[in-house]
Request: fold
Amino acid sequence: MLSVSDIHFNPFHDSLVVSQLIKTKYQLWDTVFAKIQPKRVPAYDEETNFVLFDNILKHMKEHDLDITSVLLGGDILAHDFNQRFYTNTGISDKHDRDDFIYKTVGYISMKFRQAFPRTPIFFSLGNNDSYNGDYLLADNGEFLHNTTDLFYHNFIDPKGNNALPKPGFQTTYFEHGYYNINFPMVNNCLIIGLNTIFFSTNYPGATNPNDPGAKELYWLEQQLYNAKNDGKKVWLLLHIPPGVNVYPTQNNSTPSNINVSLQWKSAYNRQFLNLLDTYHHTIVGSFAGHTHMDDFRLITHQDPTHNTPLEYIHIIPSVAPTFGNNPAYQIVTLNANTGQLKETTTYYMDLKKMSPTIDKEYQYMTTYGVAPSLGGLLQLYPELLKDPSKLERYITYYPSSSKASSIESSWQWYWCGIGNLTPEEYTKAIKKLLESTHK
Reply:
């Protein structure tokens, strides 16, 4: 399985071609990009340009004969896409902007379909994937309506596969941006593509029973209930992971005064963790993106008398080097009967090299001595504190071997974020760890 996230494609990287892209059908954009000179990959803190996307897609395509499905973790569009459009074009018309957004997601989805013509591509929307801007996806809005057929044909259903009846996808994605589909990688398994924008602390509006986030969690509970009764397994694919948003938490805190920022609104964070607690025998794995880093989360019993991890969330590293990370993607192998991961192989592009190429970075089993499954991660998590060599590897691979966004001096904050997903748990854990490591 190919696992990729946070492409953040920036068609404005070369301002000289933007006007041509506007006038050209996205199916012919390659002819426009071919004129770009010089062909350089983006630097740290930039978004994905055509050169990086083309190179990494070609490298991923080398695995095509072995790939049976693709997971795309969201954020196709560059950050600040709307402002980039206005600045680079001088156009202020909303319809022209939306047309260009559609062409951009159309181009990226087309390129994935061309690269993997026989393979279903399962996706989750990212917070930048909308017409209205970051975290502003409209429920039952135009972006969802306009991309339903596009994503169904370019992502979900390769020619002749018929993995999901089209009306089923239209009903839930068309209105709310999430869906439920058979997952061919695992026997008797469903994959649920969630829309986590509605859960985010950055999504406007207060939580209430009529909020899109509340309705989505109710829908999710129904899907999990039905899957359990039908004896099916479930994989979850989401963009924004639940739990602590570590970077602002660290920057807004002191060792004695921890000011926890959550990725999701507190009520939704707690409700989701409770669902994972209730259906932990049904949910066998979860994938997320958003942080741009190579990481994982462990979900524990919400009953404090049973503090045993029940689930894991594998966080996919980013293609875009926006946060000082190196571009990366992963190849995942798993057990077709249990759905548990057996191995991940990470490929990356080291941007500090004069002529960056895409190379193998590491394999999980070889590096940590455990599989990236629930059992392996349960063993690895405490070992990171006890084994300096394993902690060093975690610190190195977290930003895909980039020194530009190293967590070497602040690793304690990120380690606590792995297994402590509520403000109370995190505050207790980070205070204890900081105290012990600073003695």
Remarks:
- The chain has a mean pLDDT of 93.
